[in-house]
Amino acid sequence: MIVFDKNKLENSVLIEEADSLKNAGFIGKEQLDFIKKELPTLNSHKNILVRIGFFLLGSFLYSSICSAVSLLAISGLDYYWEIFPFIFGIIGIIGSEFLAKKDYYNHGLDDAFILGTILTFGFAVTFITKLENVLPVSILVAIISLGMFVRYIHMLSVLVFYLAMTLSLGYSIFEYLEAGQAILPFFMMFFGAGTYFLCRKLTKDLAEPYYYNGILLIKSISLILFYSSGNYLIVREFSASLMGGYYEISPEIPFGFFFWAFTFIVPVLYLVYSLKGKDRIMLWISFLAIAFSFYSFRFYNSVLPIEVALTLSGLIMFAVSFFFIRKLRTKESGLTFKTDRISNSNTFLNTEALVIASAFGMKPEVKPSESPMEFGGGGFSGGGSEGNF
């Protein structure tokens, strides 16, 4: 199913891990250059600005091809203009295949054609349904984006897939169930939690490492979805917007105490579990969730003036940070304040990067000096036991 050469794809993964090892000081620049020279890889860009530039260039190329095709065919298709988005989508698939065969991977040009394919097929179904139903559009976008991720290992595609899938399920629950609005938050909670545990199992049993980052992205988004589905502010304001008929203050929601408890308990659980499991992404999500929880409380209950609240919160954060820095700065293992030599926690997912040196017969950078004293010469059990020097 994957269009790329798997050897080059695996080599690209190994090069990324070798870069992390070099930045951490485990290997030197000469070893890294030798690895890059010996391992053929795909044509990609890590610099985000360069990738954005090639994306803009690819978007211009894609739109130019679509414009040329539409000009050539518009004279004979005056009454069937709805099929043009499908034609543009097919052009995007052909362009994505062509660039993939030329080993373009996370380059920028391929991003334009892959995202353009998803967008044009979504517009095609939108024109056919005349915006009467969102469900067919979201389902088609989810299917196409999943196929793009599986075939081209495109990170943004897997993000579009999960968002479209969430929209499809939420819209189905709300529109086609009698009590859909009441159970929608709880359904989204179960969906987010189920997605998280499924992705965690997949990452443990993953045989192909190049899918790891995509699954990790969905796993992280599922944590945000789970918290957002039970946040009091989001549930109350979203429910009020669906009902309509209010201007300043949204009406109270049922089970308000449950959603308030959920708003403050879940971020704390995220924080504790992230520290216990050494999950850096969950740790950052827990910080954002805690901040948004306090914002949600203040949105409905202004206990202190804004300047006083900001000052007190800053002092509390400073005191907590100072306390933990004092406690952790001398620790050498576990939870510590020491600088992480390897910023990417996935560096040792594949042990091949650690044995490249031995596989290619690479010599160490520093050769120990030979000792001036020569040993040996003994004919019996001990050195020098023959009686001569």
UniProtKB/TrEMBL annotation:
<feature type="compositionally biased region" description="Gly residues">
    <location>
        <begin position="375"/>
        <end position="389"/>
    </location>
</feature>
<feature type="transmembrane region" description="Helical">
    <location>
        <begin position="79"/>
        <end position="100"/>
    </location>
</feature>
<feature type="transmembrane region" description="Helical">
    <location>
        <begin position="281"/>
        <end position="300"/>
    </location>
</feature>
<protein>
    <recommendedName>
        <fullName>DUF2157 domain-containing protein</fullName>
    </recommendedName>
</protein>
<feature type="region of interest" description="Disordered">
    <location>
        <begin position="368"/>
        <end position="389"/>
    </location>
</feature>
<feature type="transmembrane region" description="Helical">
    <location>
        <begin position="134"/>
        <end position="152"/>
    </location>
</feature>
<feature type="transmembrane region" description="Helical">
    <location>
        <begin position="48"/>
        <end position="73"/>
    </location>
</feature>
<feature type="transmembrane region" description="Helical">
    <location>
        <begin position="255"/>
        <end position="274"/>
    </location>
</feature>
<feature type="transmembrane region" description="Helical">
    <location>
        <begin position="112"/>
        <end position="128"/>
    </location>
</feature>
<feature type="transmembrane region" description="Helical">
    <location>
        <begin position="159"/>
        <end position="177"/>
    </location>
</feature>
<keyword id="KW-0812">Transmembrane</keyword>
<feature type="transmembrane region" description="Helical">
    <location>
        <begin position="211"/>
        <end position="235"/>
    </location>
</feature>
<feature type="transmembrane region" description="Helical">
    <location>
        <begin position="183"/>
        <end position="199"/>
    </location>
</feature>
<keyword id="KW-0472">Membrane</keyword>
<keyword id="KW-1133">Transmembrane helix</keyword>
<feature type="transmembrane region" description="Helical">
    <location>
        <begin position="306"/>
        <end position="325"/>
    </location>
</feature>
